[in-house]
Design brief:
- The chain is α+β, with helices and mostly antiparallel strands.
- Helix content is about 55%, strand content about 10%.
- It is built from 16 helices and six strands.
- The strands form two sheets. It has a four-stranded mixed beta sheet with strand order 1-2-6-3. The protein has a two-stranded antiparallel sheet with strand order 4-5.
- Helix 12 packs across helix 15 and helix 13 packs antiparallel against helix 15.
- The longest helix has about 30 residues.
């Protein structure tokens, strides 16, 4: 559509009018300079206030968003990520062992299946604080319920009715508390949270992971202001205690946002390297030079793998995972590069089209790290 209609054009998403924008200067205005007018992700009609969907961080707005966001931020500080390196290495060792087995046998394998198992193990460990081995045991209940949550039925009549008549279907879905995430799977993750909290109450403060930070915010209300180092991901805020639904819902969001994006990027990177032997050889030489015989890989080591990062970035350009289109909702009448955008219009950025635009990338279909 970018080639057919140009860098700015109007269309509909179901019954909702949207403005597709890929012009670089306009995007800079919308996403940076005038972001205060586009802070929401989507139209209110498309935002369902249910559990877990309505409690996802990406669907919250205003003070509610700030409260949950300031609670989750410390989980991604450099110090916290360093503490998780042992868990990541454990999962990576299993992946390397599996790939090595296929290399020795000469058998073909489904890359996505192996990388999906790795992503599942990492998320279970770093987000939910539980150890599973989905790479060897794909029938683990955590794996089964996690994948159930990813099976959104786009062809469902309810989905299409919601897109075409959101103002009618939305209140019905909210009254029934239905949002597409299986009730049984939500109950499973809720039980996982209860069990983890019980174990940690009996055994001490627990691990410094994503779930522990949310659990602390669930149990204790911060009555004062915390004045700490922004470099460690901490903020000044007056925070309310998170509800149990907040904790469980955002644990699920961590899984939904991290599973496909991680596993697909890894699988496509393996695919690209398999097709381009010269790039593969260069990556292997870099890994040998930087890591050598070291058993553990840490943050400092990863920062030295510059060519491998280039290969991953080029893979993300060719095959962007997750959202191929990102959305912003115009909250106030705004003029961007001479174009008047009315209040209530959704602005969408076609990521895949931009990544394959020959004006930006002269040979968009070629793998050029």
């Amino acid at each position: 559509n970018l080639q057919q209609y140009g860098e700015v054009y109007g269309t509909f998403f179901g019954a909702t009018p949207v403005l597709m924008v890929s012009d670089s200067e306009m995007l800079r205005e919308i996403l940076i300079k005038q972001f205060h007018n586009f802070s929401r992700r989507t139209h209110e009609n498309l935002r369902i206030n249910t559990t877990p969907n309505g409690r996802y961080l990406i669907n919250l707005v205003g003070e509610d968003w700030k409260n949950v966001r300031s609670t989750l931020t410390p989980a991604f500080s450099s110090g916290k990520l360093k503490l998780m390196s042992a868990q990541l290495n454990r999962c990576a060792d299993i992946l390397a062992e599996n790939v090595g087995g296929f290399a020795q046998s000469g058998k073909t394998f489904e890359a996505r299946q192996l990388t999906g198992g790795f992503a599942m193990d990492v998320i279970a460990s770093t987000a939910f604080g539980t150890e599973i081995d989905s790479q060897r045991n794909p029938e683990d209940p955590f794996v089964v319920h996690g994948k159930e949550g990813l099976n959104l039925n786009i062809s469902s009549p309810v989905t299409w009715l919601f897109l075409l008549f959101p103002w009618i279907v939305k209140p019905i879905l909210e009254a029934l508390d239905l949002d597409g995430f299986p009730r049984e799977s939500y109950k499973f993750f809720e039980n996982v949270f209860d069990q983890l909290m019980e174990m940690r109450r009996e055994g001490g403060t627990g691990r410094a992971d994503f779930m522990q930070l949310m659990a602390n915010a669930h149990n204790e209300e911060d009555e004062g202001k915390k004045d700490t180092d922004m470099a460690e991901g901490k903020v000044q805020s007056h925070k309310k205690a998170l509800t149990k639904a907040d904790v469980v819902s955002n644990g699920i969001l961590f899984f939904l946002a991290g599973y496909d994006t991680t596993s697909l990027t890894m699988a496509y990177t393996l695919y690209n390297l398999a097709l381009h032997q010269e790039a593969q050889d260069k990556v292997i030489r870099e890994i040998d030079d930087v890591i050598g015989d070291n058993e553990e890989v840490d943050n400092e080591t990863m920062n030295e793998l510059t060519y491998l990062e280039m290969c991953i970035m080029e893979t993300l350009r060719m095959y962007p995972p997750g959202a191929n289109v990102i959305s912003r909702h115009c909250e106030n009448p705004t003029v961007v590069k001479g174009l008047s955008i009315p209040k209530g219009i959704d602005v969408r950025v076609p990521i895949l089209a931009i990544h394959h635009d020959p004006k930006r990338y002269p040979e968009p279909t070629k793998f050029i790290p």
